[in-house]
């Protein structure tokens, strides 16, 4: 699949620009085992890059033009390097413009370039296709123009570009996972300090399975930014009561509950979720290290319930998908994954039961919602990489 994707962007690049691409870059989507909506709350997360990618074929040019071609959409966009950049209507273009603006702000020397890209990451499914585009593009520019950006800078540029040109105040998890992903390793990331460590993504007799509700979200129209505002308000109130507190990780459940009346029901429940979820990630890492997958799975179910009832970022279809596996003896953990309001659930399933489970849940889902479920058996893969480099001689 990876080879096919690369073959396709290469052929498309040659057809469009009558030359071999100088660079081929692969930038992966991500899963997250646990730690949802806590990256922007200074918590810990446990994501990993997966074997679904955005592939870029790229080369510098000499005429100062920037030519982008979205192969999957058959849409192109061209402009001059010296043009003033502003968000445009074609959303995919904004991922590129945002990154470029970040580099312009840093006064990096660049020339024009040509890019063709194509993706196997389903869009709007909570697998971070947008972060993969941002980071893959920043990575491509880094290589083409020898900008000497570190991996962390690439991730931060991706995040900032999402804030400024896409309008989603996302945390750092998606970009970090896409860039820092390692084969068969999950990343425990401290979103406050950006310190990270890898843990083996070996779930022994269990497989990771994603079930795509096919309910599409865009974080802009969803409540993502609203949630950020709510928890910010909550933290400000909590800090007045506990002056020693700097971030949510300094708080415990009892402290949050003691201020319940002042927080009000909604903000109280948001804050409660955050404090609990930060702790759950630490417990999950301990469970993973101890090969206690039943414990890990139990925490995933708890995360789902918190996201659904207290953080309110799930939706009926995702709740259905999680409930459909709750009592299944072959499934030890499941929850909605990513920003929410649609997208995928992530499931830990006995390897030999995966196909049967897909069949059963697909049937039930079709009956209930008349939607054809999609299932992805994902593997934990390497982060953004240069697949091929040939000096194009320009
Ligand atoms: C989205 C965001 F982009 C991430 O930063 C993160 O907040 C996630 O939702 C929820 O955990 O993917």
Explain this structure.
The protein has 394 residues and is α+β, with helices and mostly antiparallel strands. The protein folds into two domains: 2-201 and 381-389, Ribosomal Protein S5, domain 2, CATH 3.30.230; 206-378, Alpha-Beta Plaits (2-Layer Sandwich). Helices cover 43% and strands 21% of the residues. The chain has helices spanning 2-17, 91-105, 129-144, 151-166, 173-180, 224-241, 253-258, 260-263, 265-289, 293-310, 316-326, 354-369, and strands at residues 23-32, 44-45, 47-60, 65-70, 75-80, 113-119, 185-190, 196-200, 206-212, 331-336, 344-350, 374-376, 385-389. Strands 5-4-6-3-1-13 form a six-stranded mixed sheet, sandwiched between helices. A four-stranded antiparallel sheet has the order 10-11-9-12. Helix 2 (91-105) packs across helix 3, helix 2 crosses helix 4 (151-166) and helix 11 (316-326) crosses helix 12. The longest helix is centred in the C-terminal third of the chain and has 25 residues, at 265-289. The chain is globular, with a radius of gyration of 21 Å. The two termini are 31 Å apart. The structure holds 2-deoxy-2-fluoro-alpha-D-galactopyranose.
